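User: Fold this, then the next.

Assistant: Folding the first:
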Amino acid sequence: MRKGEERSLAKKLWRATMARIHEELPSASFQMPSSGIVQATVCARSGKLPIAGLCDGVLKSEYFAEGTVPTESCDVHYQGMICQYTNLPASEPCPFKVGGVLELMPIEHPALQQSASVTQQITNPDGTVSNIAVPQNQTNTCPHTIEFMTQPGVEGIVEQQRLEIEAAIQAQAAAQAAASQPEGAPAPPPPTTATGQRSKN
């Protein structure tokens, strides 16, 4: 029997069993205890206290044992300076800061528990090669920290990232232009690169 079929059979058996148990019982709704349980509004994404203006569309009411209502504010919704390269809240020395609003990955997510950094080789203008430690995102903050930005040869990495940002912006603009074209209209010309040349597809 396949796993999906096993689940389906288990559901059917559970439903049949519970229906049999309850068939002689009167219908009744859940009775809220007179004490010890409180109701609070939280952000559905983080399960924490909502931030006005950021969590408004994802609020939900939850019941908590008295004394266990969340006290921390939502850490999934963010408004402030954002790193254009990583689309995460920008570190102070980040060279790609822009203002904006984000919905972040919960800090407990497994993707944030990966290795601390990877080593990337770059060729310096004088022909020498440098090994740059590029931090991996273990927090919801961009990796352009003071430690990262003060590494020898980091200028090459930053320039490479800047070019990637420009390419992404151009690709997005081209996609939007193509989507706005009437059906059957000629395709728009390819965007120009930073050097003024037409990009090749």
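Now the next one, as you asked:
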Amino acid sequence: MPEVAPRRAPVLAAVAVPAVRAGLWSPVLAAMLVGYAMVGLPAVIGGPSSPNLVVILLRLAALCAGLGVGFAFDDPARPTTATAPAPAWLPLAARLTALAVASAAWWCATLATGMAAAGDAAAALPGGDLTLEAAAVFVGAAAVASVVWRRAARGVVGLVAAPAFLVVVVVVTLLPDRIQLLVGLDSDTAWDAAHDRWLVALVLGAATVLVAATWRPRPLRRSVPASGHR
């Protein structure tokens, strides 16, 4: 039994590495680049910005980057690997890990640029709360993509997940004030309450990704009628 784990490691690597390479990463990186430009260009061209404007730009940057998340789920080889001995969720988990690392690095750079753009008012920016928002956006986009991935037999996810994510964003902007997520810095009470809801959204999104990636319905058992005795 102790030999099982060492034997599994090469198998996991043999599945995970090609899975990450097979992902459609160019749209993901392009979305991140455009999102970063939304924060970086105003900082270079316009000079110091107000904290409220920086918050808006950071939110737009996160939403833009979120549009590219679904393309990391694309798997052109899925029809041929559906019968592979490795678990179906393993390639997806490998892509999600790579996506999480890239997203974290991107957000750190984008947030730092936003702080620099705010100049002396950077202390007024709640970096932790904005990071929570960005994490919820990325996880929400991943949740939408994972649901699409579950139904995409041919492995095409991004082209469906991106517009579906946009629909979710529109719905969020139309929420009534009492459950609104996108609030300004002006009201501390509304800001704190909104970020409690952001945390709930993050947890629900993560749960959706987990269930969509791993849950498999059990096949229904057919009842066999008992044979009568003559």
